[in-house]
Design brief:
Helices cover 37% and strands 20% of the residues. By secondary structure, the protein is of the alpha+beta class.
């Protein structure tokens, strides 16, 4: 980029279009021909070349009534301009190929347990389909700043707040209150939400409150327990060891429900349905294709009826002494009916 010596108020850079005009005139040896190729009039081309020479304080062309030739300075300038324009073309081609073809390094942050169970087993299938993508995963149960830390996409499970990030729901996150048979034998199953005050509730991450919904509406309960951890896997193992109750996702405990290692209590209450599994990424515009194909792959893998939900009938996995979840009625309940449901 070159300073113009005659005025400090005018732009001090040479526009790329001026370089393109100069190169086109140098190649054709004719301003009219160059103008036709670029959709410009000969007068505009001549004016831009004159301004370029004035800005550079150098003559680039020798002009006669019949001929236009490069000066020695113009020859040297032309060689360098050709290199610049070639690099610009290469850079634009690089961006275009990266954005339109799934390739390159894809940086993902995702929850530890979910990634181990429902992403890692399918990566071979994904990479076989998109062999030019390289994957880098950071597994954490905490939300990270994907823009600051340079991630292309985050898989998040929770209730997402409004933000400048783009969100794509991948699947519902259905959660039940459960415990091991050992814990239930020792402490008995809770009969109502109020009974949770007398049980050891194990919390992971930001689960200071359990957000539940049931036949009597939504509830936000502050639970108490003697074990907390930032690791969902750690709390899961404590749950399996009989140390308390937990609010767990079916994607996490489906096999343990089926084999009887865990039992469901208070089946009429589930985790709030505004909690889900999301893909989160910085911007919808100009999204690299590597990000798009990864999100579409997971969305197609899970779908509206995730595979981990298939074959799970909560009524089969209830703790002894626990009533089956009520069947929803076709019509809304009256207030007395809801009060009766809440007192059961």
């Amino acid at each position: 980029m070159f300073p113009r010596r005659k005025s400090r108020e005018e732009p001090t850079v040479t526009a790329i279009t001026d370089l393109e005009i100069f190169a086109r005139v140098a190649r054709t040896g004719n301003m009219s021909a160059a103008g036709r190729e670029m959709g410009l009039s000969p007068a505009v081309v001549s004016k831009r070349i004159s301004l370029l020479e004035e800005r550079l304080n150098a003559r680039l062309f020798q002009r006669t009534t019949r001929q236009l030739t490069l000066t020695e300075t113009g020859e040297g300038y032309f060689k360098r301009v050709v290199d610049i324009l070639s690099l610009i073309d290469e850079a634009e081609d690089f961006v275009n190929r990266r954005n339109t073809k799934p390739r390159g390094l894809l940086k993902v942050t995702a929850p530890t347990s979910f990634s181990r169970l429902h992403i890692a087993p399918y990566l071979q299938q994904f990479l076989a389909k998109f062999p030019e993508i390289e994957l880098e995963f950071q597994l954490t149960d905490n939300f990270v700043d994907i823009i600051r830390d340079g991630f292309d996409v985050a898989i998040r499970i929770g209730e997402l707040q409004d933000s400048s990030l783009v969100q794509r729901k991948l699947a519902a996150d259905n959660r039940v209150i459960c415990a091991s048979s050992k814990y239930i034998e020792q402490s008995g199953p809770p009969k109502s939400l109020a009974d949770l005050d007398f049980h050891n509730c194990l919390s992971a991450g930001a689960q200071d409150y359990w957000r539940l919904q049931g036949p009597d509406g939504h509830h936000q309960l502050k639970v108490k327990g003697n074990i907390r951890s930032n690791s969902f896997e750690f709390i899961r193992e404590a749950l399996m060891a009989g140390l308390g109750l937990g609010l767990r996702s079916t994607w996490d405990i489906g096999p343990e429900l089926k084999n009887g290692d865990l039992k469901v209590v208070l089946p009429e209450y589930r985790g709030a349905d505004n909690v889900a599994i999301y893909a989160v990424y910085p911007c919808r515009d100009f999204m690299p294709e590597k990000v798009n194909v990864f999100i579409e792959f997971l969305a197609g893998l899970y779908g509206s009826d995730p595979y981990w939900e298939k074959g799970i009938d909560i009524s089969k996995y209830l703790a002894v002494g626990t009533k089956a979840a009520p069947v929803p009625e076709a019509k809304p309940e009256s207030k007395p009916a809801r009060a009766a449901a809440a007192s059961r």
